[in-house]
Amino acid sequence: MTGQLADSVFQGIAGTPFDAYMAALESWQLTGHGGELRLGNGLLRGPIEHDQHFGTWRIEVCLGRGPLRSPVRMRLDIAPWYGGATVLELIPCQRVRPSAAYLAAGHRLLDFLARTLPVSVPVQQRPDQDDLCAALSAGSPALSHA
What we know:
The protein is an alpha+beta fold. The protein has one domain (about 10-120): 2-Layer Sandwich (TATA-Binding Protein), CATH 3.30.310. The protein is built from four helices and six strands, in the order αβαβββββαα. The termini are close together.
């Protein structure tokens, strides 16, 4: 990754177990208009896709930076993490200048995604969850760094 792109990636860990996190995200997708969910100035666009190469789940994000700036197209990578947590990585899909507005919007959205999920969503085992856990225990990287 080059300088400006590397500085513009947001990473965080949600204390919510991966299965519960994904169930909540999928339930949000079902309630959103046309597979979209507005979160403040951000917008999540479904469907949620599985990247089998990296073992992550991803969803498209449009990060709003304010009324006079166009949204930044990003992707949110989601993967299970040790100790029952979920790791999140918000990655721009275009070149960005890491301005104060961009950094504030990215941190706000990531904080929201890491802290505001309902924990009462019933957990259902995903069919490929065993593969993801096996990949993590084998030491493969949890997230891609594009």
